[in-house]
Amino acid sequence: MKHILAITGLVALSACADQGEVYRSYSEAGSLTDNGSFGDANMNNHLAMTSEDNFVINLSNRFAEEVPNTINFAFDSAALDAEAQATLRQQAHWIRQFPEVRFRVYGHTDAVGSEAYNQSLGLRRAQAAVAYLTSQGISRSRLEAVASFGETQPLVVTQGRERRNRRTVTEVSGFVKSNPIIMDGKYAEVVYREYIASAVPASTLIMVTEGSETTTE
């Protein structure tokens, strides 16, 4: 009888497997509550110590998410208008919070004009952005380089004038030390500093009840 029940159970299990579903009466400890994120913190620490993760890309993505990384220019101009200056001030504020990080500014143009002229114009735009960032207290040594793509990387493919193509883009390029591998704890220092800064002191509420004040934390 026992053998018959065992065979019946195996047949039922095989039938479920054929349908792509297997139901078990047992599982690993914690499997019901694990949504796939358990161990991420330890994995991140491991990646940081072994330099298997590209933290430059991670920081660059964060920079682009938290701050506008692009400014635009008038036609055939490298002058910064009020909107561009406001954006660069936002960039400078973010950059000051990460003294370990270096940045690069890329200049772009639209397709009007010769390739050589646009290469030069893109460089002048990048230099203008870098000059303004340094005026906001960012060390020139942290602005690793300026580069020009000229007309070769348009956002909008057109041979005519296009403001969105006339731009500079600021990106994270590496860490201040020549070796970008974060074996000395620099990245951990950034994370710890931001963790401490995220602490918000308890607010003080004043409750007024018919001529008396009650202070609560």
* Percent strand: 15-25%
- The strand count comes to 6
Instruction: Estimate the mean pLDDT confidence.
Output: 74
Helices and strands, in order, run as HHHEHEHEEHEE
Computed Rg: 28 Å
Count the DSSP helices.
6
CATH topology: 60s Ribosomal Protein L30, Chain: A
**CATH top level label:** Alpha Beta
Helix content estimate: 40-55%
The oligomeric state of the chains shown is single chain
Shape: elongated
Classified in CATH, the superfamily is: OmpA-like domain
Biggest beta sheet summary? 4 strands, mixed
Low-pLDDT residue intervals, each spanning 5 or more residues: 13-18, 20-39, 178-183
Strands ordered across the widest β-sheet? 1-4-2-3
